[in-house]
Write a structure and sequence with these properties.
This protein is an alpha/beta fold. Helix content is 39%, strand content 23%. Strands 3-2-4-1-5-6-7 form a seven-stranded parallel sheet, with helices on both faces. α6 links the parallel β5 (138-142) and β6. α1 packs parallel to α2 (52-60) and α6 (148-161) runs parallel beside α7 (180-193). The relative contact order is 0.20. ATP binds at residues 14-19, 52, 111-114, 172-173.
């Protein structure tokens, strides 16, 4: 493995993992890096519809977008695979695919489904298991407002319990007019997780025209180090 592998997980579903993945990819592309986006298990999307990896590529630009499996039901991958009568994705397959992509790319972004411990297979394999096999750092995408502190703290605790490194937190949708809870969480999220708050992606970023998204993404992620977090 030559390129960097970075795991993108979330505190739950719908928190902005794909837009964060796209922003990280756009920032890396702007710095001349070769980027791949790997989606191990895409659920809730029909066969010919674009999935999360394709959406990240649409926003970010010329990345290699790869899915390992797709299941039609909008459920956890293990459940969706079982209902569809299709083989599940296992952590070892995710790790192998990431390593293969890293051989020809400078950065491989692995975007999970839902949260860190959502099951990939009937044996209980998760994105955390794939991260452990890869010894890869993890970025956690969170929501901004009330209720996020517990979810973020639990995710950070799960990472520590498995000996995984949380590179930091990114708020996936920062409101234009943040409420009191959101403003307080800028201080409280690092305090309860022990991880730095790396960035805030503006709400509605995915609706921007792709050229505007690519132009603005580096500024959204300006606080990230130039290496080690997709830079």
């Amino acid at each position: 493995m030559t390129g960097e592998v970075l795991i993108v997980t979330g505190t739950g579903t719908g928190v902005g993992k794909t837009v964060v993945t796209a922003a990280l990819a756009a920032r890396a592309l702007a710095r001349g890096r070769r980027v791949a986006v790997l989606k191990p298990a895409q659920t809730g999307v029909a066969e010919r519809e674009p999935g999360d990896a394709a959406e990240a590529a649409r926003l970010a630009g010329p990345v290699t977008a790869r899915e390992l499996a797709r299941y039609p039901a909008p459920l956890a991958p293990a459940t969706a695979a079982r209902l569809a009568g299709l083989p599940p994705v296992r952590p070892a397959e995710v790790a192998k695919a990431a390593i293969d992509l890293a051989a020809g790319h400078d950065l491989v972004l692995v975007e999970g489904a839902g949260g860190l411990l959502v099951r990939f297979d009937e044996s209980g394999g998760t994105l955390a298991d794939a991260a452990a096999l890869l010894a890869a750092p993890v970025v956690v995408v969170t929501t901004a407002g009330l209720g996020t502190l517990n979810d973020a703290a639990l995710t950070a605790e799960a990472l520590r319990a498995r000996g995984l490194h949380c590179r930091g937190l990114i708020i996936g949708s920062w409101p234009a007019a943040p409420d009191l809870a959101s403003r307080c969480n800028l201080t409280d999220l690092p305090a309860v997780t022990g991880a730095p708050l790396l960035a805030r992606i503006p709400a509605g970023a995915a609706a921007l025209p792709p050229p505007a998204f690519r132009d603005r993404a580096p500024a959204w992620l300006a606080a990230l180090p130039s290496r080690g977090t997709g830079g």
